[in-house]
Write a structure and sequence with these properties.
The structure holds two protein chains of two kinds. By secondary structure, chain A is mainly beta. Chain A has helices at 70-81, 138-148, and strands spanning 6-7, 11-22, 25-30, 44-45, 64-67, 85-86, 89-90, 103-116, 120-134, 151-153. In chain A, strands 2, 3, 4, 5, 8, 9 and 10 form a seven-stranded mixed beta sheet that branches. In chain A, strands 6-7 form a two-stranded antiparallel sheet. By secondary structure, chain B is mostly beta strands. Helices cover 0% and strands 14% of the residues of chain B. Chain B is built from no helices and one strand. The chains are: A mainly beta, B mainly beta. Chain A binds chain B through residues 2-11, 15, 31-32, 40-43, 58-59, 65-67, 76, 109-122, 125, 127, 129, 145-146, 148-150, and chain B through 1-6, 8-17, 19-25.
């Protein structure tokens, strides 16, 4: 039983996804867990090799992660691509991506049991809310929009 | 993903009245040609 506040509106936070082709369809895929694709039209549920569907669990690192701000998600993208500093100043531009490897940055709805920290969340359930493609064009945006039924903006 | 120090963590329970999972967009029907009477 939760001892924290009880809410009826989902939290909307920020995260990154890879966009990869599975068979004939592009899907969102977890950014840090390879080949874990997010279902379309159904919630994505946290699962842990230790705690199963009880994830997220206090004192562990399981759950679906998201940041409180877009800037924190962009900072992860810069670290991922190795572009962080430019002549000693913070680099404000998002880095170029490898050809054919689009990434989505976007807002995500979180609900169920959610563990909040100072910069973000670990959640039980999630579904994309709005996506911005980096390295993806109109055709891919239309495909993801149709599949996930959310707004998708091409780069 | 660095979401902050574990000791800042607190639990929230969120039970939306409707799950925020949109229904699939309806299939686009082909535009019908007007048929002359």
């Amino acid at each position: 039983m939760s001892s924290g506040p009880f809410l009826t509106e989902p939290i909307v936070a920020w995260r990154l996804w890879h966009v990869r082709r599975h068979d004939d369809v592009h899907r969102l895929e977890s950014f840090t867990w390879h080949h874990v694709s997010w279902p379309a039209g159904a919630r994505f549920e946290a699962e842990c090799s230790t705690h199963g569907v009880a994830a997220p669990v206090e004192g562990h690192e399981c759950g679906i992660y998201a940041f409180k701000t877009r800037e924190l998600a962009e900072d992860l993208l810069r670290r991922y691509t190795g572009v962080r500093q430019h002549y000693g100043h913070p680099n404000q531009e998002l880095p170029p991506l490898r050809q054919g490897c689009p990434i989505a940055i976007g807002r995500v709805s979180l609900w169920g049991r959610v563990l909040a920290r100072e910069h973000g969340f670990r959640a039980q359930y999630a579904y994309p809310y709005e996506l911005f493609l980096i390295g993806g064009e109109d055709t891919l945006a239309r495909e993801l929009r149709r599949l996930y039924a959310v707004d998708v903006w091409p780069s | 993903m660095d979401i902050g120090a574990p000791d800042t963590e607190h639990e929230i329970e969120i039970a939306p009245l409707d799950e925020p999972v949109p229904a699939p967009a309806p299939a686009e029907e082909p535009a019908q040609e007007p048929v002359p009477a």
